[in-house]
Amino acid sequence: MDIDIVSVFPEYFDVLDLSLLGKAKSKGLISVHAHNLRDWTHDVHQSVDDTPVGGGAGMVMKPAVWAECLDELLGLPEADNTDRPILIFPNPSAPLFTQQDATELSHAQHLVFGCGRYEGYDARIPTYYRERGVDVREYSIGDYVLNGGEVAVSVMLEAITRLLPGFMGNPDSIVEESYTGGNALLEHNQYTKPASWRGLDVPAVLLSGDHAKVDRFRRDEALKKTDRIRPDLIAQLDCHALSKADRKTLIELGWEVSGDHPRRIS
Ligand code: ADE
Predict the structure, then answer these.
(1) What are the pLDDT digits (tens) for 182-205?
(2) How far apart are the CA of 256 and the centre of ligand 1, in A?
(3) Which of the chain's termini has less CB crowding within 10 Å, N or C?
(4) How many whole angstroms from 144 Cα to the centroid of ligand 1?
(5) How far apart (Å, rounded) are the C-alpha atoms in residues 241 and 8?
(6) Atom 7, ligand 1: residue with shortest CA distance
(7) Given phi > 0 = left and psi -120 to 50 = alpha, else beta, which region is 55?
């Protein structure tokens, strides 16, 4: 997978050389290029922003400098639509980035990320590229405002690249974790040895060696934890895909499971 990132702080992405992402880079699974947006400016001050039209606080990133940069990275106007990169802008006012988005983007060959700063970027930039047939995505990583898109791009990149075949030592760990699959639940708690630590014991069933019992215990723990912390995820479950045992647990937790999706009744 080829990854281009445009930022006024490209050094920020030096961190990508660390940890598993760094390993994936050295194994050749991914190639990452962080570009400085100011390299596409023509004035002595290398300015990338201007005051907002209509007034208001802060500065807005100018479309012209972004367009020169993105035309080059996207190979426009020559490149045909089929092998165009996907263009991604982090933006606090966009739909939330989810595990589903990470999974979909992990199948792409080439991603280009544009990091906004200040009060954001001119809204005509994504519009312009969409109108030219580019697949443009805007995502928020959470309901809070950061100083710029760099942290958000790091978050998205980590979520996407760890799904690439060959990235994880043990690919099973991806299948089992939170938010994965159609019927997403929060993952059950995990424990390691020792079985007893500072007066706190690992749940006895996990030491029983009975795999069916362990699976059922973990599934119930996942249902209970999701009910407590993210009931919105329970309400999105497909009742038709739930086992008899899942239904029983959900009913005990106060959900009705007779329709398409669970409904809280107590
Ligand atoms: N830029 C600033 N805040 C952001 C957020 N929450 N998500 C994505 N990009 C951002």
Answers:
(1) 789 999 999 999 999 999 999 999
(2) 37
(3) C
(4) 7
(5) 47
(6) 140
(7) left
Q: Which of 97, 145, 155, 157 to mutate to test the pocket of ligand 1 (most atoms within 8 A of CB)?
A: 145
Same domain membership, residue 13 and residue 139: yes
Q: pLDDT digit string (tens) for 60-85?
A: 999 999 999 999 999 998 766 667 89
143 is in an annotated binding site: yes
Range of the domain at 106: 2-171
> Domain count of the chain?
2
119 and 6 belong to one structural domain: yes
Distance of CA 138 from the midpoint of ligand 1 (Å) = 10
Q: Within 10 Å of residue 91's Cβ, how many Cβ atoms? A: 20
Same structural domain, 124 and 225: no
User: Which CATH number belongs to the domain containing residue 205 in this structure?
Assistant: 1.10.1270.20
pTM of the model: 0.92
Q: Which of 133, 149, 171 is the last residue of a domain?
A: 171
Pocket-forming residues, ligand 1, beta carbon under 6 Å: 90-92, 140-142, 144-146, 149, 152
Q: Residue 146 C-alpha to ligand 1 middle, in angstroms?
A: 5
Whether residue 113 contacts residue 69, with contact meaning beta carbons closer than 8 Å, is answered with no
For residue 149, the ligand 1 atom closest to its alpha carbon is 1
